[in-house]
Structure formats: C-alpha cells, structure tokens
Amino acid sequence: MTPIGIFDSGYGGLTILKEIRNRLPQYDYLYLGDNARAPYGARSFDIVYDFTLQAVRHLFDAGCRLVILACNTASAKALRSIQQRDLPLIDPERRVLGVIIPTVEALDAISATKHVGVVATPGTIMSHSYRIETAKLFPQISLSEVAAPMWVPIIENGEADGPGADYFVKKYCDEVLAADPLIDTLLLGCTHYPILLPKIRRYMPERVNIIPQGRLVADSLADYLDRHPEMAHSCSKSGTMRFLTTEAPDKFNRLASLFLDSPVEAARITLQ
Ligand code: DGL
C-alpha cells in the first residue's frame, strides 16, 4: 500500500485530513501526529526540522511516496530544507508538500479590502513565511501577523470548548483587530485553530471572513495530483485511513474521533 502521508505535531492536521478526504475519498491516508512532543510552535528551527524529518522518514518507510506537512510550523521551518537538501538524497522521486503556499495562493480572491490578518503559532509568525509569500504573489495585500501562543496548548489539552478558552480567544482576536482595523479576512494559519472556530467567530466582527486552510489545501492537492499523473497513479486507492501517534493511543483516539466525527484507532510509534 502507498498511502498519502499526512503529518502534524499533534491533532491539528486532522482538520486538513478531513477536508482532503472529503475532496479525494478514493486515496489511502496515513496520519502521523507527534503528540508526545507537541506543541512545536515555540521550538527552535533546528528542533522542528529534526522532528519533522524524522516523521517524514517514518512515513516514507511506511510506504508513502507523497507526504503533506499539515502543520504550518513544520511547513515554515522545515519544508524548504527537506525539499532541497534531504529529498534528493533520500529519494528524488518522492515529494513533501506544505500548507502555507496553497493558503497564500487563495488570498487575493478572498479579500476585497486587501487587508488580511493571520493568526498562527509564534514559530510560524517569527518565520514571517506568510508575509514573505504574500508579498511575492500579491504585493497589493497588507498582511498583519499575530502570534497566538496559547491556542494550540488549549486544544491539545482538550479545553477548546471550556470557558477558560474564551479569555485567550478574545485576547488574540483583539490583537489582530488592533493591528489592522481594516481587515475583512482572518486567516487561521495553524491547522489546530479550526477547532476554536465557533469561539473565534464570537469575537470577530461579522464583516470579517474567517478562513480555515483545510479546503484550500485539499483543492491544491487535487490540482497537484491532476498535474502529476505519475504521482496520482503511484498512490494506492482503497479509501482507507490509518493513524499513528507518538503518545498513548487511547488519548489520541478519544480526541481524534472528536476532530473527525468518526471512530479512530491509532497505533503508537516512536520517532528518532
Ligand atoms: N498544527 C500546527 C501548525 O499548523 C501546530 C503547531 C504546534 O505544534 O504548535 O502550526
């Protein structure tokens, strides 16, 4: 079996898997969450790169020919090095794709005012990947970047629906609006954040469109597979989903089932 590999530091990538699976249900998917070492958001470049490369190698060893880094932090800090330095040595025929470029590519069509806010982990914001890629493609867009360091820990700890989450959701929503009161679009630049969407909606003015990345990434993957029939043919198509976690599977199964609205049975692995 040659599934499409989907990697995230934890549960966030499940929001991407869900949309990819809706869009491309025929393929097999192998999800890997490095829950034991999540969050990645505040970790250094070198550590995020090391952890991400270990995960990519694991997914390759499990048969994947195509791996999606369904994590903005890993896409910002590790993707380019893996594509340019590691893939040519590991296997030039395999591919690793990220989530930042497919998201940025959709921005111009979404924003009318050309004032866009992006919330993401400190690591993604400090890399300025969104600002750099947006400036390249759409210099007319003014992009305000705000780090929301507490959102991933709240979600990884199963507190997204709790009353404590409201304080931190409002705090970072207020920061985005203070950074640029003219925004008509708020991009959720972290794959965990769609879980907080009902609360984010509550603290954003109605005129602001809140954009999760899942559908954008799924559309971009479908387009990639259309343009690369050799890759599309080499990925197996039995419509299955399997899950790997570096933490206790019981905990993963409970939370992941909530993310996907269907039962999940994960196997535990060790990355090194
Ligand atoms: N889902 C990851 C992202 O998109 C979360 C990063 C983290 O582990 O902090 O950035």
Task: Give a brief description.
The protein has 272 residues and is α/β, with parallel strands linked by helices. 49% of the residues lie in helices and 16% in strands.
Describe, in plain words, how this protein is organized in 3D.
- The chain is built from 14 helices and ten strands.
- It has a six-stranded parallel beta sheet with strand order 4-3-1-2-9-10, sandwiched between helices. It has a four-stranded parallel beta sheet with strand order 6-5-7-8, sandwiched between helices.
- The two termini are 23 Å apart.
- Strand 7, helix 11 (197-203) and strand 8 form a beta-alpha-beta unit.
- It is globular and about 50 Å long.
- It is of the alpha/beta class.
- The chain has helices at 13-23, 45-61, 72-77, 79-90, 100-105, 107-110, 122-127, 129-137, 151-156, 163-179, 197-203, 214-227, 229-234, 249-260; strands at residues 4-8, 29-33, 66-69, 95-97, 115-120, 142-147, 185-188, 209-211, 241-245, 266-268.
- The longest helix is centred in the first third of the chain and has 17 residues, at 45-61.
- D-glutamic acid is lined by residues 8-10, 12, 38-41, 71-73, 121, 124, 152, 190-192.
